[in-house]
Amino acid sequence: MDNKYLDIFLDSLWPLLKAGLLFAVPLTLISFAIGLVLALLTALARLSSIKPLVWLARFYVWIIRGTPLLVQLFIIFYGLPSLGITIGAFPAAIIGFSLSVGAYNAEVMRAAIQSIPKGQWEAAESLGMTRSQILRRIILPQAARVSVPPLSNSFISLVKDTSLAATITVTEMFQRAQQIAAVTYEHMLIYCEVALIYLFFSTILSALQARVERYFERYTVR
């Protein structure tokens, strides 16, 4: 690599990493945590015997999964102000990503809960346990173990999806890369650099995912 390109690469490395640590990582963690809560509530609503809850949960999943995440972010950040609702860029990104995570992972959690044999429900009921006790003590711990691989994949995907926050002015890694490229005119170099950083983050998370899966496999009955 030419000294000029090497200098640009090294000079831009810390600003890109800083943007990732200050914006991309918090955005991912906060959105995923909120999204998991939404996913669990939506999954339980889908499995409920209360029809309005079932319809509401289905409508939420249908809307979010049926429209692009980029469009959702634009509606929240650029569209809502026309209705008198103004939300900052970072909170708007959190709302958009959380809703997306909640809708997609709701189906994961619903499938995981339904994968638990009905005999376990019946056995717990015969012991006098309430539905909430059965869910909390028996069903959800097992469903959580089943959900680990797809939820981990969702988390890794969210890390990469945070680059879309640049479109609503959040100064995360990709927008910082755009700013640096606009000054240096080395678009290929800078965009490849930010791609390598995303790849680095994803590789670490994939390794952690493998460790978590091996941990939970110890409790799997074979």
TrEMBL record:
Membrane topology: Multi-pass membrane protein
PROSITE patterns: ABC_TM1 (PS50928)
Transmembrane segments: 20-47, 59-79, 85-106, 188-208
Compartments reported by the entry: Cell membrane
SUPFAM superfamilies associated with the record: MetI-like
Protein name: Amino acid ABC transporter permease
Domain of life: Bacteria
InterPro entries from the UniProt entry: AA_ABC_transptr_permease_3TM, ArtM/GltK/GlnP/TcyL/YhdX-like, MetI-like, MetI-like_sf
GO function terms (MF aspect): L-cystine transmembrane transporter activity
NCBIfam families (UniProt xref): HEQRo_perm_3TM
Keywords: Amino-acid transport, Cell membrane, Membrane, Transmembrane, Transmembrane helix, Transport
UniProt source species: Paenibacillus agilis
GO cellular component: ATP-binding cassette (ABC) transporter complex
Primary residence: membrane
Similarity section: Belongs to the binding-protein-dependent transport system permease family.
Domain ABC transmembrane type-1: 17-209
